[in-house]
Amino acid sequence: MRPDTDVQPLRGSLGEAAFERLREGIAGGKWAPGERLPSERALAARLAISRPALREAVKRLEGEGLIDVRPRRGIFVRAASTDGLSNSFERLIGTDFDRVNELLDLRRVLEHRSAYLAAEYAGPGDIADLAAIFADIERDVAEGGTGEEPDVRFHCAIAKAAGNTVLTHLMATLHGALAKASRLLASRLMESTHYRDGMFELHARIFEAIRSHDPKAAAQAMDAHFDFVLREFSQYRARAGES
């Protein structure tokens, strides 16, 4: 979230006003799906309300399915109004590797354009967000994790930087549809140093191209990323005896 410089004290029901302000920000793409909101203290100060009033607003947002409150991790934006679509995709795909491959092909097409537009339109705040998420990927993998959760945030942040709210929420929906298969594949593929190093290098290329505002290079790096994932996925299926 970019700093607000014109926040005025809220009137009337503070919790209600905070709820409306935050809901408008989420609907308008101020925070991308998967993005972590500022801390409770920071949000309360930004909205000039008490923390109890903010908690009231957060509870309502969670009840409407706009956010996820994760203990000890923070508040994260959900893909707005796409639960039905996400659930339909998830039921269709599950861990069916043929369907996973098809969805990865679809993501390749969408994210080519997403990376191109992000490199063209990303502002300083977008670049800072991507840098922080990229550091999270590096840290998670170094600590023995798969990097799956920050990877989702990285791709959603690219869609947000592209300036297309519909694309941002669609990307979050597609990531949700791939959740089960992604966890399975990440646990297998990330065992390979070759895969870990390749993914890190490709994410770095995407980030550097966007930071340099080079749309063509960003789109090419994203294509290379998906070519690598699809190739490694195919090889994994062959080793596992999947047709």
**How many distinct folded domains?**
2
Strand arrangement, major sheet: 1-2
The CATH homologous superfamily of the largest domain is termed: GntR ligand-binding domain-like
Q: Kindly state the mean pLDDT as a whole number?
A: 80
Give a description of the structure.
This protein is mainly α and 243 residues long. A two-stranded antiparallel ribbon has the order 1-2. 71% of the residues lie in helices and 3% in strands. The N terminus is likely disordered. It is built from eleven helices and two strands. The termini are far apart. The protein folds into two domains: 64 residues, Arc Repressor Mutant, subunit A; 158 residues, GntR ligand-binding domain-like (Four Helix Bundle (Hemerythrin (Met), subunit A)), CATH 1.20.120. β1 and β2 form a beta hairpin. α5 crosses α7, α6 runs antiparallel to α10 and α10 runs antiparallel to α11. The longest helix has 26 residues.
Quick overview:
The chain is mainly alpha-helical. It contains eleven helices and two strands; from the N terminus they run αααββαααααααα.
Question: How would you summarize the topology of this molecule?
Answer:
Blueprint (H helix, E strand, L loop, with lengths): L13 H14 L12 H8 L3 H13 L3 E4 L3 E4 L5 H11 L3 H25 L2 H19 L5 H14 L3 H13 L1 H11 L3 H19 L3 H26 L3
Antiparallel strand pairs: 1-2
